[in-house]
Amino acid sequence: xxxxxxxxxxxxxxxxxxxxxxxxxxxxxxxxxxxxxxxxxxxxxxxxxxxxxxxxxxxxxxxxxxxxxxxxxxxxxxxxxxxxxxxxxxxxxxxxxxxxxxxxxxxxxxxxxxxxxxxxxxxxxxxxxxxxxxxxxxxxxxxxxxxxxxxxxxxxxxxxxxxxxxxxxxxxxxxxxxxxxxxxxxxxxxxxxxxxxxxxxxxxxxxxxxxxxxxxxxxxxxxxxxxxxxxxxxxxxxxxxxxxxxxxxxxxxxxxxxxxxxxxxxxxxxxxxxxxxxxxxxxxxxxxxxxxxxxxxxxxxxxxxxxxxxxxxxxxxxxxxxxxxxxxxxxxxxxxxxxxxxxxxxxxxxxxxxxxxxxxxxxxxxxxxxxxxxxxxxxxxxxxxxxxxxxxxxxxxxxxxxxxxxxxxxxxxxxxxxxxxxxxxxxxxxxxxxxxxxxxxxxxxxxxxxxxxxxxxxxxxxxxxxxxxxxxxxxxxxxxxxxxxxxxxxxxxxxxxxxxxxxxxxxxxxxxxxxxxxxxxxxxxxxxxxxxxxxxxxxxxxxxxxxxxxxxxxxxxxxxxxxxxxxxxxxxxxxxxxxxxxxxxxxxxxxxxxxxxxxxxxxxxxxxxxxxxxxxxxxxxxxxxxxxxxxxxxxxxxxxxxxxxxxxxxxxxxxxxxxxxxxxxxxxxxxxxxxxxxxxxxxxxxxxxxxxx
Length: 693
Fold this sequence. Notes:
Layout: H1 7-27, E1 55-58, H2 59-64, E2 81-83, E3 93-96, E4 99-100, E5 107-111, E6 114-115, E7 138-145, E8 159-165, E9 173-179, E10 183-195, E11 198-209, E12 219-231, E13 235-249, E14 254-255, H3 256-261, E15 263-264, E16 267-268, E17 280-296, E18 299-316, E19 331-352, E20 355-378, E21 381-407, E22 410-427, E23 435-453, E24 456-468, H4 471-475, E25 492-504, E26 510-521, E27 526-528, E28 533-535, E29 540-554, E30 557-570, E31 586-597, E32 600-609, E33 625-637, E34 640-647, E35 655-663, E36 672-679, E37 684-692
Parallel strand pairs: 5-8
Antiparallel strand pairs: 1-7, 2-3, 3-4, 5-6, 7-8, 9-10, 9-37, 10-11, 11-12, 12-13, 13-17, 14-36, 15-16, 17-18, 18-19, 19-20, 20-21, 21-22, 22-23, 23-24, 24-25, 25-26, 26-29, 27-28, 29-30, 30-31, 31-32, 32-33, 33-34, 34-37, 35-36
């Protein structure tokens, strides 16, 4: 079915499914199951999820630990590590299940119902910039891993996270944070009942930070959210206006040979120094979104729509003087786009013969209208154009799934998803790279949930997922830098996943889950924004084990312990080797949280990012890192709280990211293959005063 050329067909399909669901509901009334979990940090209890690696994180836990950057809220998802290899206005680097997800490819993220990942992006496919997130507004994070869930589409092969914002606040507040190296942040928010069942929420955030870098970062960030809502959880609606902009200077990764030498251009040089002082960027996004929901008489219907305006100008120099010895290798990636989308779903409880069942159908559509380019620059001044394109990309998907209670102890879920992508590229620099392309993919899903026995349940999950490739790669015939012929790439790349898991609450106070998983990709094609071309990579195979634990031995004490081991390899044979660069082997996080001991609360977290191969033959590996973060809070008087955060408590000399590639410094006679590193921040102290009113 051509979902884009025949949108009416898709809508008729959805309408027919909704009508059939409604008839089934009227024939056999039912009540949707509701799981109420009060006073918990996690809604991952036995009987509440469809996979061992699925769960929900509540705002109470988010408040208990510090986050150096907004994107680090995703580290509450077990197995996820978030780092940075450039300025703090740029999207983070994400790691999960043996993936260096770069800036978000294969991990789909939404905030307040808005997609964060950007397809056909100037810097990298699936670019996911979470710096507009305001953590104080987060109500919960619903996460899933693997391609097993019918409602999740593009970029969700490794996992996904839906970050839900609050529509009302428990109390209005203002908070001021001051820290080392000129860190200043103010955030304030409030909500009010307007009458007639309407509620208005508003929040603003202003931030400045220079960071530990010799070249002050000068991060400037302004952020705001306004949400109008009405109705109830059973039937209601909301509309949100969000606006964000930021500018910064960045200290990108530096070659280790220069750090070891200790000098550069006749002056001392250290880990926190920059080579090109004009690197940095500016970005912004503005959005308008709305959603409506209703849950009555065994049925649940949701509909949402959004419009986003986004822009980015990024200036980077990772190879210094490799390609242009006289001018330097700085380049600019620029992206400006408007995004429009809608989602609709309908779920109904009914019967299949004598069996209780629940079915859901949905439709999702998104269109990106993009102007994207790659330019040679000197101190942010454009000197040449590598490529400049107008892109229109449309993705559409329909899905359906049915959950059936086969026996009192066995439940089955079968799902099917159909996706289609349409890509239109108008190259303003090379006519041969203009054109249109399309791709489609059908993805089956299956889950079996058995139990519980002795407060223990077992899961089997399997499914197919995908990520889209950059639209420019689907029409390209000529390499924009060399002029050599290149092959077009498929628009959608399939992944196949399998998982066996268990979750138990057999031991009082302990919630533990274990998952054994594998994930195969047909190809790891990625669009390399630094080169303006799609880089063909090999098929891959990953497998691993995750073990997650939550232990509450007393009402005031919480222990979290998450461990993940991954084996990641290319699936074909090649002389270069079979290791996937930057695929981390081990990840761990252990946190101890003490809550409400009189006026005091505290948490201590250990975070381990393991070693990984930096080249295919495993001859060079990244170094493992272990960091410790501390938070101590004290209530001063009613509605007032003082919080001390200490990041990298032991002041360990570790790196956020390591790469191995060729670069050339000014004055070097030839390129040098070297390890390039971006250090983690040294011990950093911040103090926050928060007042409610």
